[in-house]
Amino acid sequence: MRNRLILVALFFLCGSQQKSFAQEFKDTTGFREAYRKMQIDPNVKPYSYDVTVVGNIGQTPDTMKATISFGPERMKMKMGEMEVILNPQYRIMINNTFQQMIVSRNYERTVLAQMSMPSIEAIIPFIDTWSLAIDKGVKKLTFNCQPGTGFKSFVVTSDIKTGYMLQVFAVGADVIDEGISTPPTATSYFSNYRIIKADFEEFKSETYLVLDGPDLKPAGKYKDYSLTFDKPNQ
User: Fold this and answer.
1) Sign (positive/negative) of CA torsion 59, 65, 66, 67?
2) I want to staple 66 with a disulfide (CB 3.0 to 4.6 A). Which of 76, 79, 94, 178 is the partner?
3) pLDDT tens sequence for the chain (234 residues)
């Protein structure tokens, strides 16, 4: 549960300004519009940011740090010794500790457009009530989850002027740890936003892979890594 909570929090991003609502709502139509406006415009210039996720479940805290880059139909995430690259050609997972690379053809390019936030259709079944507020240059989207979903609530905070996300606070359903019932939480802190070049090298397949006759092999600084396809005959 802790890993699922952290990963859900990790992939939240925010976008455009929106109107402020003082009261809570239960209607999914209004939530769809509010949520849509929280998503970054897919035509925005490529950018990178850093994120620190602090998770707590019972007495066991957990911290993850990552650098994430986005471009049209492209993403690169580096978290510790792991790298994940998505582009129109491939999905590439790299373990730098063990010098391993796992590659698959990217047959689901449309998924990339939703990587900045979970799709609205994935979120709607969780929604019980929601509210949207603006205060002191910050906008905050809060939604409480239906019982039985495994989550209690999410709070997404972003800067009105820049549209950049500042923080996501996620609360999971209660768990029993050392005989004490406590809700697991994950807080994501986003910082160091910067625009990157449209031809960002770390999005390109050739940064990681090169053709050797009819076959692919690791390239550049990864040339000594082992390569595995996660599906045969790719």
Assistant:
1) positive
2) 79
3) 444 444 444 444 333 223 333 345 567 778 887 777 666 655 668 889 999 988 887 666 788 899 999 888 888 999 999 999 988 899 999 999 999 999 998 766 544 443 445 667 777 888 889 888 888 888 888 989 888 888 889 888 888 777 778 888 888 887 665 565 678 888 989 999 999 998 899 999 999 999 988 889 999 999 999 999 876 544
3-state SS string for the chain: CHHHHHHHHHCCCCCCCCCCCCCCECCHHHHHHHHHHHCCCCCCCCEEEEEEEEEEECCEEEEEEEEEEEECCEEEEEECCEEEEECCCEEEEEECCCCEEEEEECCCHHHHHHCCCCCHHHHHHHEEEEEEEEECCEEEEEEEECCCCCEEEEEEEEECCCCCEEEEEEEECCEEECCEEECCEEEEEEEEEEECCCCCHHHCHHHCEEEECCEEEECHHHCCCEEEECCCCC
Whole-prediction pTM: 0.76
